Automatic annotation (TrEMBL):
Superkingdom field: Bacteria
Transmembrane feature ranges: 28-49, 159-181, 201-227, 344-363, 369-388
Signal peptide: none
InterPro entries to which the protein is assigned, alphabetical: UCP026631, YdbS-like_PH
Matching PANTHER family: UPF0699 TRANSMEMBRANE PROTEIN YDBS, UPF0699 TRANSMEMBRANE PROTEIN YDBT
Name this polypeptide is given: PH domain-containing protein
Domain YdbS-like PH span(s) in chain numbering: 52-125, 391-463
Keywords: Membrane, Transmembrane, Transmembrane helix
Length: 483
């Protein structure tokens, strides 16, 4: 009986303490729940007030939006200026049958696209507004039939882990583990656990194993991100000359691009995709916001990573050409351009190695000396290989109505730009370029990245290329310089 009583006591005491703890925490929990409910109710109330004070109207000449609770705001866009109507719906809006409608003019105002945002409207109303606002009278009274230029192939998912997003997500995962463990005060225990798991391995082996684990986690994240962004993908050409991209698993997006704004295409091949024979297609168009994050699905992306042959086919269809200009044979650049890239690459690779060697000598620490030597042995060959690849990627050509430039190694970009879209040339020549007889020519345009460069072209060849691409645009300045 004494033993039984001890067991009952041993069980009952923790239960009692736990119950007392919950009772003691009761007011805190009640305050937390009450505050959460108050915040939710406030958010819902503010949204209800905003919707009640928001009105829009689409007339024959203008699209108008009135909004504001304390300060009324009236915005208006001329229908002649409207160039895009995009529909976006996150999971809650989809559940309610609603969408956000973003009406854009394709112009930049204070660094942002001038838009009217209707949030939210019924999906059927959003589709009606999109069709009405983007309706254009086709040339010569004709109208294109709606055609599908590309649609999702689930096999494309194999390219998702080959992007730079994988390494970024791997680093983020490692940082998140350390940050969360610090919040809970168990960071030292996590580090000790990792040390116990890899006990017996060398430092190099442990680092490589951790990198492999991180890349595996990053690959899983990249796959999930790709599915969310590109599921149900479809690229269509609609009557009246509008390209429409639809995509998204949980958050659906419908992005419209008027072909009149199109100035060319950019076939992008990050290193991982290029090694696997894949590429993506971006539009070079006016009024599209440009994202610098690599491998992110921006408004200019027409085709996700797909086999290069398919990417060339889609680029040709987008440009209404039989063969895409981005597949034309490009003129190579002078060997002096290769020498420049090798010098840059070797200098960048030797810089950290020399710092480590210098510290090792000054501090008399052999480990730093060995590390510096190893860094040079590893980085220099890699840098030279990348420099040679960067040189091979250089090229330029003229193809019918397009000028084509290509550059890059970690991110190779082949841009086909309509000659009529070029509004100017920028000619740059450093002291070292002058000695090597090279120039960098940048075609400026109102679309895309605003400028597309042919790097390290022979001086005479480059100036002739610019003059042939857009006759008369550069000639007066050349005559002035020669005179």
């Amino acid at each position: 009986m004494q033993m039984t009583g001890g067991v009952v006591t041993a069980i009952g005491v923790p239960i009692t303490l736990s119950f007392q703890g919950w009772v003691a925490m009761g007011p805190v929990i009640a305050w937390a729940v009450g505050l959460s409910l108050l915040l939710i109710a406030s958010g819902v109330g503010l949204d209800a007030l905003r919707l009640r004070h928001s009105r829009y109207r689409v007339g024959p000449d203008r699209a108008e939006l009135r909004s504001g609770i304390l300060f009324a705001k009236h915005r208006s866009l001329s229908r002649d200026r409207i160039r895009s109507v995009d529909l976006v719906a996150h999971p809650l809006l989809r559940l309610l049958g609603l969408v956000e409608v973003r009406i854009g003019t394709g112009e930049q105002s204070a660094g942002q696209e001038a838009t009217l945002e209707l949030r939210p409207v019924r999906r059927a109303e959003g589709e009606r507004l999109r069709r009405e606002l983007l309706s254009r009278a086709a040339k010569d009274g004709a109208s294109d039939a709606q055609t599908t230029l590309a649609f999702l192939d689930p096999r494309w998912i194999r390219y998702a882990p080959l992007s730079f997003v994988t390494s970024a997500l791997a680093a983020a995962a490692g940082g998140a583990v350390m940050q969360v463990s610090e919040w809970f005060g168990v960071q030292e225990e996590v580090i000790e656990w990792v040390g116990d798991v890899f006990r017996g391995m060398s430092v190099t082996g442990m680092v490589l194993a951790l990198i492999a684990v991180g890349l595996a986690a990053g690959s899983v994240g990249a796959l999930g991100l790709w599915i969310e962004m590109w599921w149900n993908y479809r690229l269509e050409r609609e009557p009246g000359g509008t390209l429409r991209v639809r995509r998204g698993l949980f958050t659906t997006r419908s992005i419209s691009l008027e072909e009149a704004r199109l100035r060319g295409v950019d076939v992008v091949e990050p290193l991982g995709l290029r090694l696997s024979g894949a590429a993506r297609v971006d539009a070079v168009a006016t009024g599209l916001s440009r994202r610098d994050e690599e491998d992110q699905a921006g408004p200019s992306t027409l085709l996700p990573a797909a086999p290069r042959r398919l990417a060339d086919g889609v680029a040709a269809q987008v440009l209404r050409e039989r063969v895409t200009p981005t597949a034309t044979e490009l003129a190579p650049h002078p060997r002096a351009a290769r020498s420049r890239r090798i010098r840059w690459a070797v200098s960048a690779a030797l810089a950290p190695a020399l710092v480590l060697l210098l510290l090792g000598v000054l501090l008399d620490v052999r480990v730093l000396t060995y590390l510096g030597t190893g860094t040079a042995v590893v980085l220099v060959p890699v840098a030279v290989a990348l420099a040679c690849d960067a040189y091979r990627s250089l090229g330029h050509a003229l193809d019918a109505d397009y000028l084509v430039v290509r550059s890059g190694t970690l991110r190779r970009s082949t841009v086909a730009l309509r000659r009529g879209g070029v509004i100017g040339w920028t000619v740059k020549q450093s002291v070292l370029q002058r000695r090597a007889g090279l120039v960098t020519l940048s075609a400026t345009t109102a679309a895309g990245a605003q400028a597309y460069a042919a790097y390290d072209v022979g001086e005479a060849e480059g100036l002739e290329f610019a003059e042939r691409a857009v006759p008369g645009l550069l000639a007066p300045f050349l005559e002035r310089r020669d005179g």
